[in-house]
Design brief:
Strand order of the largest sheet of chain B: 7-8-9-10-6-2-1-11
Strand order of the largest sheet of chain A: 3-4-5-11-10-7
Structural class of chain B: alpha+beta
Oligomer: heterodimer
CATH class of the largest domain in chain B: Alpha Beta
Helix content of chain B: 25-40%
Number of strands of chain B: 17
Number of domains of chain B: 2
CATH topology of the largest domain in chain B: BirA Bifunctional Protein, domain 2
Number of helices of chain A: 5
CATH superfamily of the largest domain in chain B: Bira Bifunctional Protein, Domain 2
Strand content of chain A: 25-35%
Order of helices and strands of chain A: EEEEEHEEEEEHHEHH
CATH architecture of chain A: Beta Barrel
Largest sheet of chain A: 6 strands, antiparallel
Strand content of chain B: 25-35%
Distance between the termini of chain A: 15 Å
Number of domains of chain A: 1
Number of helices of chain B: 14
Amino acid sequence: MADVRGCNVPEDLMYNVENNVWARREADGAVTVGLTSYACSLAGQIVSYTPKKVGKSVKQDKSCATVESGKWVGPAKVPVAGEVTAVNEAVSGNPGLINDDPYGEGWLVKLQPSDWEGESGALKTGADALAAFEAKMDAEGFEGC
Amino acid sequence: MTVRDPKQWRLLETGLRRAAENFAIDRALLESHQAGTSPHTLRFLRFHPSALLGFHQNVEQELNLDYIRAHDIDIQRRLTGGGAIYFAPEHLGWELFLDKAVLGTADMTVIARRICEAAAAGLSSLGVDARFRPRNDIEVDGRKISGTGGAFDGDSILYQGTVLVAFDVERMLRVLRIPAEKLSDKAIASAGERVVSLQGLLGSPPALDTVRQALATAFGQAFGALFETESQLNPAELPLYEDALAEIDCNDWIYQRNRPETEAPMREAIHRCRGGTLRCGVVLDEPRQRLNQVWITGDFFAAPRRLVVDLESALRNTALVDLERNVGRFFDGYPVQMMMLGPDDFAAAIRSAVASVPEPVDG
């Protein structure tokens, strides 16, 4: 398990580092999307989650869910485009799951990607992702999770 | 993205408007700021009488619709988080559109604190002792004078707050969905102990321009910024404003998360213990098993007086499973004097309220 400044960054996931989100291609071709532990640390305790509805198409870098923490509201932006095929009912019931388990039970949406091959190439993974998060944290003056 | 001057900000005064127009401007400015086509901005705004929901709130769970309709009050949904508020023409709104680079951090808690401390300094320059109260309030001697909230998109942030220049506590209470009991004279007086206006503190309301000037000076000092005054949106913002207005100036937007009142029942209970009587009310989010709101009154001794307000604030959005832990954590860090009363009594009072039969929902 890799970490950057105390924030867990699993090396097997694909990241859009700028938007602080991850993607994982599942065996059935779907893509699971979530916030990184760094994003959760910046946000603080998440108290509300409103995903886009199942069946909606979301373009790359557009919002698939809105989350609220400490009176801050902001979008979670998808790393690749696709149609929302599932939203996380467990997170609807307990948005704090996003903080507790951002790469597991706290996932945001599942997508049927429209161009995984074309769009996923620009995402970062493994050591590249760790280095990119380190640079982002440095630029943002982040001390650690 | 255009290069923005971090020290040269726009001071935008958009006047007295309908809530839909105000929030369409918010959306346009945040979007345009994110696109690099808006400068950093301090905006002052005012509202025709409006009930303003937090982004994730539900109209029927938060507002007293009968009263609102009878008094011609607008309803709108903010871009920002937090709770429902009543915004009157005599209140002043302030907003900052900045990026994380100006603030020197991406940590949302730190950003809120820096901005609120600057706003508090501005209000203090009017002759009151305003301070930031975590997480998002500015208070004078334990009484709230300004509530705040934020929204972000990428590196751009919108952070907004209210200033109660003058204040009608009863009207505020009637707009919000709260139990009838809280509208008794005593309850209104008690709410008046938790909220305060500049008029209440200074004897007469300061001119709005004086308040604007005080806030602008304080933000300028805190962030090293100079202002150029404008009263119009720029050419990049105008079309975004028109689009946003078309989208939000309708019931589909306002009622979009319409979860029924019955999913968030109000419950009350009285807890008697050696230290006195605690009367506790809760609004419980049943599907999420979470406390939306908690209020505590009763006959007991606890000092400082603001203890209860701070506890209520600390327990907002607490998951029921975490109740005792959160109450304990609050008291661990709080200097308090209580007579024959302990944290367990507060937790027990809240538990009693949760377990009680819900009050019938008013038609």
